[in-house]
Automatic annotation (TrEMBL):
<dbReference type="GO" id="GO:0046656">
    <property type="term" value="P:folic acid biosynthetic process"/>
</dbReference>
<dbReference type="InterPro" id="IPR045031">
    <property type="entry name" value="DHP_synth-like"/>
</dbReference>
<feature type="domain" description="Pterin-binding">
    <location>
        <begin position="229"/>
        <end position="497"/>
    </location>
</feature>
<keyword id="KW-0808">Transferase</keyword>
<dbReference type="InterPro" id="IPR000489">
    <property type="entry name" value="Pterin-binding_dom"/>
</dbReference>
<keyword id="KW-0418">Kinase</keyword>
<dbReference type="GO" id="GO:0046872">
    <property type="term" value="F:metal ion binding"/>
</dbReference>
<dbReference type="GO" id="GO:0046654">
    <property type="term" value="P:tetrahydrofolate biosynthetic process"/>
</dbReference>
<dbReference type="Pfam" id="PF00809">
    <property type="entry name" value="Pterin_bind"/>
</dbReference>
<dbReference type="GO" id="GO:0016301">
    <property type="term" value="F:kinase activity"/>
</dbReference>
<dbReference type="InterPro" id="IPR011005">
    <property type="entry name" value="Dihydropteroate_synth-like_sf"/>
</dbReference>
<dbReference type="GO" id="GO:0003848">
    <property type="term" value="F:2-amino-4-hydroxy-6-hydroxymethyldihydropteridine diphosphokinase activity"/>
</dbReference>
<keyword id="KW-0067">ATP-binding</keyword>
<dbReference type="Pfam" id="PF01288">
    <property type="entry name" value="HPPK"/>
</dbReference>
<keyword id="KW-0547">Nucleotide-binding</keyword>
<comment type="pathway">
    <text>Cofactor biosynthesis; tetrahydrofolate biosynthesis; 2-amino-4-hydroxy-6-hydroxymethyl-7,8-dihydropteridine diphosphate from 7,8-dihydroneopterin triphosphate: step 4/4.</text>
</comment>
<dbReference type="InterPro" id="IPR006390">
    <property type="entry name" value="DHP_synth_dom"/>
</dbReference>
Length: 510
């Protein structure tokens, strides 16, 4: 006989609701005048763990997410992506692991049947326990319930001993408890809450070891951004960009500049065919593509680009789709989806990383007085950026494909830009209140040659701001930036190397 238990700490009760289980449904009974009135429970919050170490692991994850969505699980949050050493049976390939949080009306055993069907459709067959598998889907939590049956135990009975499960589970939470269900999940731990259980297991210091790496899929590899800062070189194909407008409009000039930036140490080339300087006039997606595609096609064929990445700086979904179809690796959207309502859904379908930047308004209005009003710029940027990247998640872009950019120089005064450069840890901490996964996302900063540097250093000419750029990049990296977007690659690469060396020394000597 199935046994279904609900845990009843005070913080997990809702009014006078009482819960009971039958083989066919979960219901709860409120206190009504007519005791026969029953109200069936609605959607339940669930957490489902994912693992894969056979075949195309990322495609297996993508297929599983798509099938869950079609089968009655609405995914609301994603954990980070981890590459992990195998446990228990160690003679097998490394796994990818993550977890999702969602809502479903499926009852627990029905949800289990759905997940097993998805596993089979992706190619899982009976094999050795803890052995290789194309996909593994486990129910970690189901609403506020404990479940014990011949087929299902919830919470999953081995959560607490597995770092590869606990790490993505923690990502689905915020540092602040956001629902009654989450409060109950904390209460299921015998160690005083999930955070305490995670710390007892080893916690954040486990991340970055050979056994547990937080990674972002980009191009044909998994990027562990914790080791070295990446340098993104700027290629403007526009006639009116503030720093180098008109210099690289021809294919020949653009290719020559890319060769120079690669030789100087750029890891990523960010190509923009639409100016986003203050007061810039917007061009159509068609005109943007006319500028972009001829250059992109040639750059993609350059032997120097092997193991390098191409980013497309655009806020148009049509440009993003065409560029990725040609071979671009990631999309850099200064509007975080605000200027094209289709952008985030399109990027979700492309399976590429998405840089979401904070900006109020658009390039023609971002420096208007109303867009420059902040009480606490770091906290407000974090809150507004969280709202935009949360929408990206709901549109289907997993947290493990999101890169965040606080938008230095975009709808910011000089003092705001300084606050951001010194306040990256505050921005991460504010996002962490709502989502630890999104707070762990790589951070990109782009202070290069911006006007505020000229104001501070009395350098009205943009190309004379490179020394100030190096100083701002240094401050940003030491504050937690993972990618720096710059025009002068050579000198900033040296600054990056020094900052990385200092950070590694501090970590090794701690």
């Amino acid at each position: 006989m199935n046994v279904f238990k609900h845990l009843f700490p005070n913080r997990c009760r809702i009014g006078n609701a009482k819960f009971f289980y039958t083989a066919s449904r979960i219901s709860f009974l409120h206190t009504f005048a007519d005791p026969s009135v029953q109200v069936h429970s609605q959607e339940q919050e669930v957490v489902i763990a994912l693992g894969s170490n056979m075949g195309d692991r990322l495609q297996n994850f993508h297929d599983a997410l798509q099938l869950m969505g079609k089968s009655g699980v609405h995914i609301t949050r994603h954990g980070c992506l981890y590459e992990t050493a195998p446990a228990y049976v160690t003679d097998q390939p490394h796994f990818l692991n993550s977890a999702i949080r969602g809502v479903t009306k499926l009852e627990p055993h029905e949800l289990l049947r759905v997940l097993k069907k998805i596993e089979m459709s992706i190619g899982r067959t009976d094999g050795i326990r803890y052995g290789p598998r194309p996909i593994d889907l486990d129910i970690l939590f189901y609403g506020k319930f404990r479940i014990h049956s011949d087929l299902l135990t919830v919470p999953h009975d081995r959560i607490w001993e597995r770092p590869f499960v606990m790490a993505p589970l923690m990502d689905l939470l915020g540092s602040a408890v956001d629902s009654d269900a989450v409060a109950c999940w904390h209460s299921f731990s015998d160690s005083g809450g999930l955070f305490e259980s995670w710390n007892k297991l080893g916690g954040e210091p486990l991340i970055g070891t050979e056994d547990l790496k937080r990674v972002l899929p980009i191009g044909n590899h998994l990027w562990d951004w914790s080791g070295n800062t990446s340098v993104m070189g700027v290629l403007n194909l526009t006639p009116d960009s503030f720093s180098d407008g008109g210099k690289f409009q021809s294919v020949k000039a653009a290719v020559s500049q890319v060769r120079l930036m690669i030789a100087e140490g750029a890891d990523i080339i960010d190509i923009g065919a639409q100016s986003t300087r203050p007061m810039a006039s917007r061009i159509s997606a068609e005109e943007e593509l006319d500028r972009l595609i001829p250059v992109l096609e040639v750059i993609l064929g350059m032997p120097e680009m092997e193991r390098k990445l191409i980013s497309i700086d655009t806020f148009y979904s049509g440009v993003a789709k065409e560029a990725v179809s040609k071979g671009a690796h990631l999309i850099n959207d200064v509007s975080a989806g605000q200027l094209d309502p289709d952008m985030q859904k399109v990027v979700a379908s492309l399976n590429v990383p998405y840089v979401a930047m904070h900006m109020r308004g658009d390039p023609s209005t971002m420096q208007n007085i109303e867009n420059l009003q902040y009480d606490n710029v770091c906290k407000q940027v974090a809150s507004e950026l969280y709202s935009q990247i949360s929408n990206a998640e709901l549109s289907g872009i997993p947290a493990w494909r999101i890169i965040i950019d606080p938008g230095i120089g975009f709808s910011k005064k000089t003092e705001h830009n300084l606050d951001i450069l010194m306040g990256l840890p505050t921005i991460r901490a504010e996002i962490a209140r709502k989502s630890l996964a999104l707070s762990h996302a790589p951070v990109l900063i782009g202070p290069s040659r911006k006007r505020f540097l000229g104001e501070i250093c009395s350098r009205p000419v943009a190309v004379e701001r490179d020394p100030a750029t190096i100083a701002s990049v240094t401050a940003g990296i030491l504050g937690g930036a993972n990618i720096v977007r710059v025009h002068n690659v050579k000198d900033n690469v040296d600054a990056v190397k020094l900052c990385d060396a200092m950070l590694k020394w501090r970590k090794s000597s701690a």
